[in-house]
Design goal:
Layout lengths: L1 H11 L5 H8 L3 H8 L7 H11 L3 H15 L3 H17 L8 H6 L4 H8 L9 H8 L3 H13 L3 E4 L2 E4 L13 H20 L19 H20 L23
Antiparallel strand pairs: 1-2
Length: 259
């Protein structure tokens, strides 16, 4: 989690350094370096302080601190209790076939989902080089992604063809996550590239700016979710699929003052 957050910050600011990260977390740079390299552990107390600096949600903070305790707590009895919690979390993670946040951390890069969708194309080839060329990524990234998704039972191989195991993947709504931030940041960057690289006839990007009553936000967000699901179901109908597209809805506040 700490490494992911560091990578996310570097993506947003190429000049962001380990020393700056240590400053923001209020720990020494040498110690942070040792932690990120798995040369030194963290206490649960230190984990709580870091979680506060990262402004993690209560759920993510609990998972982070429990993980630290299971790995590094010096009290054998307490460490055993943390390990039991970890096992319970992992068991609960598969309920309702939802992709839990812990699973999402492993496949935060956008191309995992793109590979799943590629398997539905009529001309799909179970070949790392072909997939890498189609998505514009490296062959070793494809190989690692496929291995990872097989281990998570998101993808399986039958008669030489890759098959998407799940028909629908979801993450818990309205839960902050470092990996979710990275995932959405990557897709926004892909959208920016598409504006300049793709023909206007092959894409649709538009924006509306309007005033709203913020008390209605839950209702408005639910309408967007309903539209997104309905749009995907409609697009899924019919065969002869020959491309993978991304639908991204951007709905956010432009005003930064108290009304």
């Amino acid at each position: 989690m700490l490494t992911e957050e560091f990578e996310r910050r570097k993506q947003l600011n190429s000049a962001y350094s380990l020393r700056a990260y240590a400053r923001d977390l209020e720990i020494s740079a040498p110690r942070l370096s040792q932690v990120l390299r798995n040369k030194q552990g963290l206490s649960v107390m230190a984990a709580k302080q870091i979680a506060k600096k990262l402004k993690l949600s209560d759920e993510t903070k609990e998972w982070f601190c429990t993980s630290v305790g299971a790995l590094h707590d010096r009290n054998f009895k307490q460490r055993s209790e943390f390990e039991k919690k970890i096992k319970r979390y992992k068991k609960e993670a598969k309920v309702n076939s939802e992709l839990s946040l812990e699973y999402f951390k492993v496949i935060a890069d956008w191309y995992h989902f793109a590979i799943l969708e590629l398997t539905y194309l009529k001309d799909f080839q179970n070949n790392n080089a072909w997939i890498a060329n189609i998505l514009g990524i490296k062959s070793d990234e494809v190989a690692a992604a496929i291995t990872r998704m097989k281990l998570l039972d998101l993808l399986r191989e039958k008669d030489g063809r890759l098959i998407d195991t799940f028909k629908f993947l979801a993450t818990p709504d309205d839960v902050p996550s470092i990996s979710l931030k990275m995932f959405n940041t990557q897709l926004i960057k892909k959208a920016m590239e598409a504006i300049h690289e793709q023909d206007v006839l092959e894409r649709e990007m538009s924006s509306n700016i309007f005033a709203v009553n913020k008390d209605r936000l839950p209702e408005l967000k639910e309408k967007l979710k309903h539209f997104r699901r309905e749009f995907q179901q409609d697009a899924d109908h019919g065969g002869n699929k020959n491309a993978v597209y991304c639908l991204g809805l951007q709905f956010y506040e432009l005003t930064k003052r108290n009304l």
